[in-house]
Every structure is written in structure tokens, then in C-alpha cells.
Amino acid sequence: MDSEAMRQVPETGELPETGELPEAARRGPISHAIFRVARLHRTLAGQLLREVGLHPAQELVMMQLWDHGRMRQTDLARHVGADAPTMTRTIQRLEKAGFVRRVRSTSDKRSVLVEPTAASHALRQQVEDLWGRLEDYAAGDLTDTQRDETLAVLERLEASLAAHTNGAEAPPHPGAPDA
Fold it and tell me: GO annotations under biological process (predicted)?
């Protein structure tokens, strides 16, 4: 939108349509779409997770703990793809809610181990159900073939982005061997 058009918006009261690609984003329509989809997905996930007392990304931590049991906090951060300060805050909140317990490693006093509590195990089925609902909301009308194709494209985008991120790597995919 040029400066002339910008001056006309307040006079006419007309605003661009919701979802319209901003002029500055025209060279990155896929990136803009990823941003919009991620924002909506996180918003909906947050709404669903509030039903069980969690915030977005806390369920990802719990999923790792349910699958692997007690883990070093640094390994947990790597599996989830979070930095150390974010993981520390997430663990503190989950601990305060009674879903995890932190203990010092007996073999390495510098390491903190995080383990799921009985309360978190009671939460697991609810989280699985919520993730099923979220998946249905996001891809409910796609065929199985379209779902597979969408997942393959998303994995390729993730790998491409990870390759261009300083020192970052994509977190392991479901079913892939642990790195």
C-alpha cells in the first residue's frame, strides 16, 4: 500500500480485508501463512488446554515425560525445542501445579531431573483427547492422503528452517529414533 492509499484509509473508513497479505509480506506469502496458522493453532490449543489447567507448550513437556519418564531438564529442553530459561519457567509452573517434581541427580549434582507426578498421569488421557480435537479442528476435512501430504510438507519446511537457524535442529519427529 503506498502513502497515498494509506492517507485514504482514515477518510473512507475502509480497512483491508482480514487475512489480506500486507504489501510488505508479498515476497513471503508462505511465511505469512505459517505465522497466521501458528497463531490460530496456539490460540485454539490454549483454549482447549485451559480446560485441564495447562498452558500451551506445557503439554509438550508432559508428553515427553509420559513417554520417557524421568529426564534431565537439559534433555527435556532439547526434545521439546525450548531454550533453558523457557524450560526452567515451564518446569517451575508445572511443579507449582503439581504435575512434575524436580530432583537433583544422584550421579551428577549439576543435573536436575524432572519426573511426572501421579496427578500428571491422571491428566494424560485428557491431553490426548484435547490433541485429538485440535487435530480434527485443524485438519478435519482433509482426506488421509491430504493429511499425509500436509505433514510431509510441514516436515520439509521445518527441516529447511532448522537448517538456517543458528545451531538449532528440528526436534525429533514422532516415530523417528531419538537423536
Answer: response to stress
